[in-house]
Structures are given as C-alpha cells and as structure tokens.
Amino acid sequence: MSQLVSHWYQNQVHRTEQGSSYIDIGKKRRVTVSMFKSMPLIDIREYYGADGDEKPGKKGISLSVDQWEIIKDNFDMIDQFLSDLKK
C-alpha cells in the first residue's frame, strides 16, 4: 500500500464499538459496512448527536451486496449523467 493510500485509509476509515467499518463522508454522513441478520449491508446514512455520541438517523439507505455491485458497475454512467447535468 502506498504511503498516500495508507495515510488516507488511516484518516478516513473508522470502526464502531460494534466492530463495523465506516467511512465518514462529511456533514455527519457515513458509509458503513456491517452485518444484519447474517447479511452484509452497505449503509449510507445521516447521523445526529454530539461528536463521539452520534446515532443513526432515519435518512439513509441500506444496500445489499447485489445492489452495491450494480452501482459499482455503473460508476462511469453515473459520472456521465453528472457531467451532462453540468452542461
């Protein structure tokens, strides 16, 4: 792992007390990877509360691995949609 990637990883990836990994994407929003009823989920959610005592809010979505793969497979198309909006 390069020094830049290693530095980014150390500063961006966190763990909850329950052991789930998450990435802070700003403005009290997180992408969390966790297990629920033996199913891995990618959770994109807003949090509320004081720093260090954040709780998950109602605003967000939990994606199955299959749904996440569809998004990943279509990153280029999504980028194109964004580019088209800027024109």
Write out key terms for the chains shown.
PC4_C, 87 residues, ssDNA-bd_transcriptional_reg, five-stranded antiparallel sheet, transcription coactivator activity, DNA-binding, alpha+beta, 5 strands, 3 helices, Transcriptional Co-activator pc4, Chain A
Summarize the structure in words.
It is a single chain. By secondary structure, this protein is α+β, with helices and mostly antiparallel strands. The chain has a single domain, classed as Roll (Transcriptional Co-activator pc4, Chain A). The protein contains 3 helices and 5 strands; from the N terminus they run αβββββαα. The longest helix is centred in the C-terminal third of the chain and has 12 residues, at 75-86. It is globular and about 40 Å long. The N and C termini lie far apart (37 Å). The model has no long low-confidence stretch (mean pLDDT 86).
Strand order of the largest sheet: 1-2-3-4-5
Output the structural class: alpha+beta
Top-tier CATH class: Mainly Beta
**Given the structure, what is the number of helices?**
3
Uncertain segments: none
Question: How much is the average pLDDT?
Answer: 86
List the helices and strands in order. HEEEEEHH
**Total strand count, please?**
5
Q: Any idea of the CATH topology?
A: Transcriptional Co-activator pc4, Chain A
| Shape verdict | globular
Domain module count? 1
CATH architecture heading = Roll
- Beta-strand percentage? 35-45%
Summarize the main sheet. 5 strands, antiparallel
CATH homologous superfamily classification: Transcriptional Coactivator Pc4, Chain A
C-alpha end-to-end distance: 37 Å
Subcellular location: Nucleus
Domain Transcriptional coactivator p15 (PC4) C-terminal: 24-73
GO molecular function: DNA binding; transcription coactivator activity
InterPro entries: PC4_C, ssDNA-bd_transcriptional_reg, Sub1/Tcp4-like
